[in-house]
Write a structure and sequence with these properties.
The complex is a heterodimer of chains A (118) and B (114). With 118 residues, chain A is mostly beta strands. Chain A has no helices and eleven strands. Chain A has a single domain, classed as Immunoglobulin-like, CATH 2.60.40.10. The chains are: A mainly beta (118), B mainly beta (114). Chains A and B meet through strand 5, strand 9 and strand 10 of A and strand 4, strand 5, strand 9 and strand 10 of B.
Chain lengths: 118, 114
């Protein structure tokens, strides 16, 4: 069965410090991968998505970046965190079939990282 | 504004009662999905309904879709305290290389009192 791991679960960082959040998927290959941010009591904001190794698309211009060095590894980074980067970060994957079928697939989420910037 | 918007924002009911949540969207879709999120956890996929379906059931869940009104509803029957969570609708939107991106609504917070 497929599993998704996301770490750390909680992170407290000072303003201006770097960030690295990691997400790995097991039990599947060539997945679509996503990074979302969720403000308290709100919906999900798509930050980045990836359809393959080294293929990253950004939805929101900001001081965050993402990388996919391996098929099932997705990393969210920042060189200098801002107060506004606080939030709940979620990684997700969905099967990739292509031919317009990807939108009919559910997304599977990790348990998230609670990031607090001081 | 978001593609999917849920109504109500919050709902409090007694155990055993039914809970109904609604979702409206703006553009044509080929499917609509409902997810659940327990406090401090990731989202869990509940059910997907395709645009050519009007109703779908999964256990105590019943989802309807009205494409003419661009709306969907999620009904949870005989609710339990364990159903306490936030519920989100999600719709595919736009294109990116190899697939779609999914837009999530702001969610309905359901509280079921024991």
């Amino acid at each position: 069965s497929q599993t998704i791991h996301q770490w750390p679960a909680t992170l407290v960082q000072p303003v201006g410090s770097p960030l690295s959040l990691e997400c790995t998927v097991e039990g599947t290959s060539n997945p679509n991968l996503y990074w979302y941010r969720q403000a308290a009591g709100r919906g999900l904001q798509l930050l980045f998505y990836s359809v393959g190794i080294g293929q990253i698309s950004s939805e929101v211009p900001q001081n965050l970046s993402a990388s996919r060095p391996q098929d099932r590894q997705f990393i969210l980074s920042s060189k200098k965190l801002l107060l506004s980067d606080s939030g709940f970060y979620l990684c997700a994957w969905s099967p990739r079939y292509g031919r317009g079928q990807d939108s009919n697939q559910p997304q599977h989420f990790g348990d998230g990282t609670r990031l607090s910037i001081l | 504004s978001q593609q999917g918007e849920e109504d109500p924002q919050a709902l409090s009911i007694q155990e055993g009662e039914n809970a109904t949540m609604n979702c409206s969207y703006k553009t044509s879709i080929n499917n609509l999905q409902w997810y659940r999120q327990n406090s401090g956890r990731g989202l869990v996929h509940l059910i997907l309904i395709r645009s050519n379906e009007r109703e779908k059931h999964s256990g105590r869940l019943r989802v309807t879709l009205d494409t003419s009104k661009k709306s969907s509803s999620l009904l949870i029957t005989a609710s339990r305290a364990a159903d306490t969570a936030s519920y989100f609708c999600a719709t595919p939107h736009g294109f990116y290389t190899g697939g779609f991106k999914t837009i999530f609504g702001a969610g309905t917070r359901l509280f079921v009192k024991a």
